[in-house]
Amino acid sequence: MRKPDRDMGKDMRVNNKKMKLRKGLWSPEEDEKLIKYMLNKGQGCWSDIARNAGLQRCGKSCRLRWINYLRPDLKRGAFSPQEEEFIIHLHSILGNRWSQIAARLPGRTDNEVKNFWNSTVKKRLKNKTSVSSSPNNNDSSEPRDVVGGIFPVHEHDVMALFKDSSSTSMPPMATGNQFDPFPPLNNRYDMTGAFDVPTCITQGGMGEGFWGDYGILEPGKIGLEGDFSLPPLESRSIEDNNAANNSIDNMKRNNNHYNNTCFSNTDQSFKVGDMFGLENHQWQGENLRMGEWDLEGLMDNISSFPFLQFQVE
DNA sequence: AAAAATGGCAACCGCTTATTT
DNA sequence: GAAATAAGCGGTTGCCATTTT
Question: Which residues form the HTH myb-type domain (predicted)?
Answer without folding.
Answer: 18-70, 71-125
